[in-house]
Design brief:
Layout: E1 19-21, H1 22-29, H2 37-47, E2 51-56, E3 64-70, H3 86-99, E4 105-107, H4 109-115, H5 122-127, H6 129-132, H7 141-165, E5 169-182, E6 188-194, H8 200-214, H9 230-247, E7 255-264, H10 278-292, H11 301-311, H12 320-323
Antiparallel strand pairs: 1-3, 2-3, 4-7, 5-6, 5-7
Helix pairs in contact: 3-10, 8-9
């Protein structure tokens, strides 16, 4: 996908109200001409963030475009009409992404939830059964975490897709490989590595998932990391581990997981410095969603309050790490 800065559109200063073909526009922007109907639509949608464009369609002839005005700044402040929290999610994601030297984030679903303040640091600990079973009277939260995750991530995923469709970020599927071994002290150590795009290792990761999905009932063939029922997801993970060990015999990796690769459009104007209390506002909305979800109706009011206070509230006074016997 082509990336543009607001300054790039200065080339149209003397072309306002002049009919241009798609090739003319691409030549002026010094970018590649998009191939295919979907690519062209996405390209025009991207341009509409920077300028007002009128499309002139004439039967039998190529579509022409008239640039009526160049906006004083990109229309990135446009918020999804059904979600007032869109701009807060965008601010949280872009703040982190634009601070990265590579302007590229590799984040698991849980890591994106944490980045956007929808969960706190205890959440990842309770998801790990080896840790959860050490927390004694809090072990019951392990099974509830899956429901909380599904409620929050499906909502967050919609926000990320909205960012992608408006060309604020590129949201891609990536991979992370894992290797677990026992050191000379008998401690189990896990190392992980983000897989570079378009690498030989990435091709092997794709092969792992193709085989795992093929052998897991209930997973769509074109699965791209969307939410799956817990039992289906667990079986998929079992298949992934099996095929990872089989395919990565030489490398020694024994597990692969999908991650979100988030690449921001290279434009600092995307980040709105005026937004304040981002973490608090998003965290309060996360608490509200879990407080009201019917999927946790089997819990008592007190149990639901514990789940919210200890797994979501960013100001929780409970630190699970300090409770573990490690």
């Amino acid at each position: 996908m082509n990336r543009f800065n607001h300054e790039d559109f200065n080339v149209f200063a003397d072309k306002i109200a002049i009919s241009l073909g798609l090739k003319d526009i691409c030549n002026l922007l010094q970018c590649q001409i998009p191939n295919g109907t979907c690519s062209r639509k996405a390209f025009i949608k991207q341009l509409k963030q920077f300028c007002e464009i009128e499309e002139i369609k004439d039967n039998g002839k190529a579509t022409k475009y008239i640039i009526k005005q160049i906006y004083s700044k990109p229309l990135v402040e446009t918020i999804h009409k059904n979600n007032k929290f869109q701009e807060y999610i965008e601010h949280a994601v872009l703040t982190k992404a634009l601070a990265e030297p590579t302007n590229k984030l590799y984040l698991s679903n849980t890591e994106v939830l944490y980045l956007t303040s929808l969960i706190n640091k205890n959440f990842k600990i309770i998801c790990n059964w080896n840790f959860a079973k050490q927390l004694e009277d809090r072990t019951w939260l392990h099974s509830e975490a899956a429901t909380i995750y599904s409620v929050l991530y499906r909502w967050l995923r919609e926000r990320l897709i909205q960012m992608h469709s408006r060309h604020i970020i590129e949201l891609q599927r990536g991979y992370r490989v894992y290797k677990t071994f026992t050191n000379n002290k008998g401690q189990e150590i896990t190392i992980k590595e983000n897989v570079k795009k378009d690498s030989e290792l990435e091709e092997k990761c794709k092969e792992v998932f193709v085989n795992a999905i093929k052998h897991t009932y209930g997973v769509p063939k074109n699965w791209k990391g969307e939410w799956l029922p817990p039992t289906v997801y667990e079986e998929l993970q079992r298949q992934v581990r099996f095929w990872a060990k089989k395919i990565f015999v030489e490398e020694g990796w024994d597990n692969v997981r999908t991650v979100n690769v988030i690449i921001p459009v290279q434009n600092k104007e995307l980040l709105k410095d005026s937004i304040s209390k981002v973490e608090e506002i998003l965290n309060k909305e996360s608490q509200r969603k879990i407080q009201n979800t019917k999927q946790l109706n089997h819990l008592t009011g007190f149990e639901r309050e514990i789940a919210i206070e200890e797994l979501i509230d960013i100001h929780t006074q409970v630190d699970y790490l300090s409770l573990l016997e490690i």
